[in-house]
Amino acid sequence: MVMQHGTAGRLCIDLGALVANYQLIAQHVAPATVSGVVKADAYGLGAAPVSAALHAAGCRHFFVAHLCEAAILKPHLPIDTTLYILNGLPPGAEGDCVAVGAVPVLNSLEQIDSRAALARTMGRPLPGVIQVDSGMGRLGLTPEELAILRMSPERLDGIDLRLVMTHLACADDPDDGFNERQRTAFDAIAHQFPGVPRSIDNSGGAMTPGVGHGDIVRAGIALYGGAPHGQPNPMRPVIALDAYIVQLRTLEAGAGVGYGLTHRFDRPARVATISVGYADGWPRHLSNRGSAWIGGVRVPIVGRVSMDSMALDVTDVPDALLHAGAPVELIGPHQTIDDVAAQADTISYEILTRLGQRYARTYLPAPVANPDRSIMA
User: Fold this and answer.
1) pTM here?
2) Which of 76, 107, 95, 86 lies closest to 35 in space, CA to CA?
3) Nearest-CA neighbor of 198 among 218, 181, 179?
């Protein structure tokens, strides 16, 4: 049972909007397959319910970052799915990965060698994905390691190679010329692995027109309603977040509010304290700069965001809307996750993944798919 009272607020997750975003991405990248990136507990929205909704819509490939995430999610996935571990495996974790039944992304020669050695020990091939560094400089085989692998392809013996992949560094800016440089570099590298499916696009790459999308795209932030390229955003919003008023008070001109009294009023003001703070994922950086909405009226955050609460200047809000327990929109029709991220000088990924566990979470179900018309991935 979900507790509705005594929580920091209400977080509503629209699985129908999630599925609509999945289908929109699938239309953009067809005939490529769309996978779901559900790392960090599906960007904070719940990997199990999110994956179930995506599976019902036709998704069969899912990506997490760590083995521990795979171990938690795997029991919730149907047998016809494949679960990949983006960060690969730390030394000594190969056997645990086999027990979980996930597919590691192999980011170095050492990871390749460990996987191949275990395959020989077990006397059967083990699935794996090779990631190559096409210019981002983060994860994946370097050009030097690729050259070594070309000279000794037997190092892959025992590995059932499911995919070769890379990651775009600048996909959120489709006009950045580095995207084409990476695509060209990856295309040349992928020829080293003939017949192996390719994956290059994240959300930004998937929603870029006029490019080849490979065989599997890895959809992340766009699934959850974040803008893949800035504005306008073609994705449907997936979450709504409301807090509630804990207490109201009237302060005189010159009075301050919050730790350090960093905001002082130049007029008499009504102040509402609400029940969300940085422990609930609301960035402290929004102190004296962020906002919320009550009844269509923008109300600025005044003073510092505290651990469990923050104050709003509600002087311009009609009195009928101001009472203990009244809802306050933090994310919704008047401000999106991208709007909040811009106010906080961050990105929508961080806003989503920081949302805490003190909200009453409600999932709006996705419509039941017609099996004859679903987009199978």
Assistant:
1) 0.94
2) 86
3) 218
Catalytic residue positions, numbered: 39, 259
Three-point CA angle 45, 48, 51, nearest 5°: 90
In this structure, are residues 352 and 368 in contact, taking their beta carbons and an 8 Å threshold? no
Q: Could you tell me the sign of the dihedral formed by the alpha carbons of 115, 119, 121, 122, in that order? A: positive
C-beta separation of 72 from 96 below 8 A: no
Q: What is the Cα–Cα distance from 45 to 354, expressed in whole angstroms?
A: 10
| Cα dihedral 313, 316, 321, 325 in deg (nearest 10) | 0
Please list the pLDDT of the chain residue by residue as tens digits (377 residues): 444 667 999 999 999 999 999 999 999 999 999 999 999 999 999 999 999 999 999 999 999 999 999 999 999 999 999 999 999 999 999 999 999 999 999 999 999 999 999 999 999 999 999 999 999 999 999 999 999 999 999 999 999 999 999 999 999 999 999 999 999 999 999 999 999 999 999 999 999 998 999 999 999 999 999 999 988 999 999 999 999 999 999 999 999 999 999 999 999 999 999 999 999 999 999 999 999 999 999 999 999 999 999 999 999 999 999 999 999 999 999 999 999 999 999 999 999 999 999 999 999 998 875 544 333 33
Q: How many residues does the chain have?
A: 377
Whether 73 contacts 83, CB under 8 Å: yes
- DSSP bridge partners of 12: 240, 362
- The structure tokens 């979980």 sit at 100
Q: 325, 274, 337, 336: which is closest to 300 by C-alpha?
A: 274
The position carrying tokens 């290059």 is 200
Are 54 and 369 spatial neighbours (Cβ–Cβ below 8 Å)? no
Q: In the chain, count of helices (H) and strands (E)?
A: 11, 18
* Rounded Cα gap, residues 29 and 226, in angstroms: 18
SS3 content of the chain, % helix, strand, coil (to 5): 30, 25, 45
- Cβ partners under 8 Å of residue 348, min gap 6: 221, 226, 227, 336, 337, 338, 340, 341
- The rounded distance, in Å, linking the Cα atoms of 323 and 334 is 21
